[in-house]
């Protein structure tokens, strides 16, 4: 099977950026950074790489949603690598 790269954009509740980033780090992402939005607001961009035979992006998304302080998630990009 192939590896898959998925990039999520994660929006947080006000004042919850750092705790959400700490929670995402526990999921061992391939890359994690913040992106400036507007008026000082930031979103988290997180990339995971996984074997599509053993996982899928929906499972990863659900694990991120369970982190306290996450308000919204969108899949920005998903591709075979």
Please give a quick description of this structure.
The chain is an alpha+beta fold and 81 residues long. Helix content is 22%, strand content 46%.
Description:
The protein is an alpha+beta fold and 81 residues long. The chain has one domain (3-80): Ribosomal protein S6/Translation elongation factor EF1B (Alpha-Beta Plaits), CATH 3.30.70. 22% of the residues lie in helices and 46% in strands. It contains two helices and four strands. It has a four-stranded antiparallel beta sheet, covered by helices on one side. A hairpin with a 5-residue loop joins strand 2 (31-36) and strand 3 (42-51). The chain is globular. The termini are close together.
Keywords:
Alpha-Beta Plaits; four-stranded antiparallel sheet; alpha+beta; 81 residues; 22% helix; 2 helices
Which helices and strands appear, and what pairs or packs with what?
Layout lengths: L2 E10 L4 H9 L5 E6 L5 E10 L5 H9 L4 E11 L1
Antiparallel strand pairs: 1-3, 1-4, 2-3
Terminal CA distance reads 11 Å
- Structural class given helices, strands, pairing? alpha+beta
At the first level of CATH, the class is Alpha Beta
Instruction: Classify the helix fraction into a percent range.
Output: 10-25%
Q: According to CATH, what is the topology?
A: Alpha-Beta Plaits
Quote the beta fraction: over 45%
Going across the biggest sheet, name each strand in turn. Answer: 2-3-1-4
